[in-house]
Structures are given as C-alpha cells and as structure tokens.
Model the fold of this input.
Amino acid sequence: PLRYISKYRESVKHEAEKNKSQWKTMGPAKVAVPSPNNFLQKRSKEPKLAPKKKEQEGEKLLPLSVPGRTYRPVIRIKKNFINKNAVAVIKGEPKKPRHFCVDTRQGDKYLLEPSGLFPKYIRKKNYGVIPKYVTRRNEEMKREEEEYQASVLEQLKKKAMKTLSEEERTDILKALKKKWEEVNHAFLGLPILTDTRYKQMHKEELELKLKQLEHDIAAIEKHKTIYIANV
Done:
C-alpha cells in the first residue's frame, strides 16, 4: 500500500520556513547605523513638563490677588476714643462696691465673696431642695428593693413547710393504727419455732415495722401541729 501523506504537509512546510529566522544565532546581517544628525543633546534625558494648555473661550479666569482698576478702597473714619470713653462712662452704671475682709493689723484684705464667708448660696431659690435626679434615683432604688423583697417572700412561701390540718392528722393517725393492727396480727400469727433463716428474717422485718409504726403514732399523738416540708 502507498505511504500516507497528510494533506497539511505543504502548509506546515510554509509555516516552518516563514517563522524561521535566518540570523538566529549570528545576529542580523546588516545593522542600521545611527544618523550623525541625531546626536545626544544636553539634558535630553531629563523629564519634561507637559506644555501649558491655552485657555479656551468661555472658561472663567481665576481671581487675581492684585486689585483691579475699578477697585476703590474703603476710607476709614477716624474715631475719637476720648469722647467715646467719656460717653461710655457717663451713660454706664456705677461700679458697685465689693465686700472685703481684713484679717491683719496691717490692713491685708481679700474678697469676701469667694472666701466662703459670704452667704450667697442660701439666697438661691432652689437652696435646700433635693435635685430631681437624686429623687428619681431614690425612687428607683426603693422600687427595686420592694421588688427584691417581694421575690424573696415568694420564694420563701414556695419553700415553706405545709401545716397538716386536724382532719388530715386524724386520718393519718387512724391509718397508722390500722396498719399497726394488720402488722401485729401477722406478727402474732408467726410460728413459735423459727428454725429457718426465712422465718427469722420475716420476724425481724415485722418487728421493725411495728417499732416504726409505734414511733410514728406516738409522735403524731404527742404533737398537735405537724409541718411537712415541700421536697
């Protein structure tokens, strides 16, 4: 059979020849020589500022610090401070005398008002009146204390012991006596000879129950008021 030949063979050859560099290892055949007119000039490599743009029509110019031709300075009127001060003194209120306190023989004195000896605070309208924020704070503290006491009492009532009424006490006493009679009847029905371990244990159990019932009956009959804790 004939050898396979790709249909892209010619295009691949063309691409290989097109991308191949003739001077890949030896450098270009001819180097462009610089022109003698393009010599390096002084300060040619320094950065240059962009040229200023000319002002276009319609743009507003920035105000200059130099006054314009139409500027007219304000003429200041001279004042007669002597007459002004004299008028102020004549129309002004007279100076009130200040209270002094002399504490030495040489006449050393100091102002009485800032010394603390002059009673200026007692002349205020709100002198001796409790501030509103203090009153409000006291009311809040009192309310919080009442709420705390109420919560404590409620917790104590929940945890308080319950008192048995006379009817409940009588019913319990009757039930205990009835139970004692039943246990005593069972105890009296025991055989005389306890020769086995089971008989001995049964007798001891009945004796313990009788002792406990007798103790409970005596305690209830002795105390008229009985309290039961809420567990």
